[in-house]
Amino acid sequence: MTDRDALILNAFAKVLRQHRTQAGLSQEELAHRAGLSMRYVSLLESRKHQPSLATLDALARSLGISLTAFVAEVDAQARAGTP
To answer: Phi/psi of residue 23, each to 5°?
Structure first.
């Protein structure tokens, strides 16, 4: 994994967790809404797995934001270099 990959993965995990907590959702509730397992959501938030595009879309929709907005936030977070 490159440094850039690690930055993106860290940024994704942070943005996902922020949106989930701001929405007042547990990992279990987010997983249910997105059609995923709670374990998988936990692994995403702990940077142990990378999501597919379909998973990104399901998560974004479940959080009430567009896929493009979600990805833009991840990109901005990664560019800032603050994992």
So the answer is: -80, -5
Helix (H) or strand (E) holding 4: helix 3-22
Sign (positive/negative) of CA torsion 77, 31, 63, 50? Answer: positive
Encode pLDDT of 15-60 as tens digits.
999 999 999 999 999 999 999 999 999 999 999 999 999 999 999 9
Domain assignment present for 83: no
pTM comes to 0.92
- For residue 4, the model assigns a pLDDT of 86
The total domain count for the chain is 1
- 12: CATH: 1.10.260.40
